[in-house]
Hints:
InterPro entries: UCP028291. This is DUF2218 domain-containing protein. The chain is 28% helix and 39% strand. It is an alpha+beta fold. The radius of gyration is 12 Å and the shape is globular.
Amino acid sequence: xxxxxxxxxxxxxxxxxxxxxxxxxxxxxxxxxxxxxxxxxxxxxxxxxxxxxxxxxxxxxxxxxxxxxxxxxxxxxxxxxxxxxxxxxxxxxxxx
Length: 96
């Protein structure tokens, strides 16, 4: 498993966290509350979210060969919810 993390600067982090969790909650056993969320995309793929007043931390975990795709899926969904705001391009820090 590989893991990557990015931070998105936004004052709307809690709203985006909630939207992402509710969106995927129809397909997966999502948990969220108190500024945190976890989306289990499968037995070996996860997304963990943490919101504070200044931004949203996104951590994705998956097999190394599928990690870039999961990063893209999560960030593309975030951009759809944040269409009124320019989030820039994410800078992912990958660890094995």
